[in-house]
Amino acid sequence: MVINWYPGHMVKARREIQNSLKLVDIVIILLDARAPFSCRNRDLERMVGQKPLIMVLNKMDLADAGCTERYIEELAREGLQAVAVDAITGKGMSQVLKAIGQTYKPLADKMLAKGRRVRPARVMVAGVPNVGKSTFLNCLVGKKVAKTGAKPGVTRGKQWVRVREDIELMDTPGLMWPKIESEEQGLKLALLEVIGENAYHEDQVALYLVKILREKRPEVLKEKFRLADIEGTDEEILQAVGRKRGYLIKGGEVDFYKTCHMLLHDFRKGSLGRISLD
Ligand SMILES: Nc1nc2c(ncn2[C@@H]2O[C@H](COP(=O)(O)OP(=O)(O)OP(=O)(O)O)[C@@H](O)[C@H]2O)c(=O)[nH]1
Ligand SMILES: [Mg+2]
C-alpha cells in the first residue's frame, strides 16, 4: 500500500510559497540528513527553478556520518551545493552562513555596480514537514522566534525574520506533493515523521524498519535488543524484540502494537544509534 499525505492546508501553503519565491534571492531547501533523497520535493524544486539554491541536510546528529558525506558528494555531482547541520546544537551553521554569503555575492556585486546600496539577502527556508525548518531558523537567529514541534504541520504560514544586518530569512510551512510514487519512499517519510501519523499504520512502518535494519545494520538488532540471531520473518523479529523488552499482554503474548510503537519511538529519538536510510 502506497502511503500518501497531502492535507488541504498544503494547497494553500504551496500557493503562498510560489508567490513568496518572487521576493527572495536564495532558497534553502532543508532535508533530513537520514534520507535526503527521499525528502526531495521535486514539485518544490521545479517552483524554485533557476533561483540560487542551497541544500541543507539537517539532523546530522541522527544520521550516519559516512552516509551524510556520501550524500553531499552525490548532490554535488548534480551541481547542488549542500551543507550538513544540527539545528539544535548549531553544528555546521557557520558553513551555512558562508554558503549564503558566497551565493549572494554576485547579486550584491550587481547592486554595487549599479550604484545601489546592498540590501540584506532574502532567504527562504523550505522543505517537507518536520525536517527542522523552524528550529534551523531559530538557531540562526539565536532565539526562539518560530514555533517548533515534533509532529509535521507545525508551521502554517510564512514568517520573515532578520538574522543579522545582512540576512533575512523566511520560514515556510512544510510542503508535500500530491502523490508519493514509491512505496519505499512513503515508508521512509513515515519513519522520519515527515508524514502525518493518520496517513499510515505504525505496524507497517515498524516492519519496514526491521527490514532495513536487517539489511543495513543487523548489529543494531542484535546488540540493542540482545537477539541471539535474526533469522525468520520481519514479524518474528518484531515479536522477539517485544519479548526481550517485556511488552506482553495477558497470556504472555507479545503486545505487537506497543512493540511497533516503541521501536519507531526509539529510532526517531536516535536511541538505536545513527542510522541513515537512503
Ligand atoms: N535531533 C535533532 N532534532 C532536530 C533537529 N532540528 C530539528 N529537530 C527536531 O525536529 C522536530 C521538528 O522541528 P521543526 O523545526 O518544528 O520542523 P519544521 O520543518 O519547521 O516542521 P513544520 O513546520 O511542521 O513543517 C522538532 O522536534 C525539533 O526539535 C536536529 O538538527 N537534530
Ligand atoms: Mg516549522
Automatic annotation (TrEMBL):
Gene Ontology cellular component annotations, sorted alphabetically: cytoplasm
CDD domains assigned to the protein according to its UniProt record, in alphabetical order: YlqF (cd01856)
Name by which UniProt lists this protein: Ribosome biogenesis GTPase A
**Family per record:** Belongs to the TRAFAC class YlqF/YawG GTPase family. MTG1 subfamily.
Per the annotation, which location comes first and is thus the protein's main one?
Answer: cytoplasm
Q: Which residues bind GTP?
A: N58, K59, M60, D61, N130, V131, G132, K133, S134, T135, G174
CP-type G domain boundaries: 14-178
* Annotated organism of origin: Thermosyntropha lipolytica DSM 11003
Against NCBIfam families, the record matches this protein to: GTPase_YlqF (TIGR03596)
Query: Which SUPFAM superfamilies has this protein been placed in?
Result: P-loop containing nucleoside triphosphate hydrolases (SSF52540)
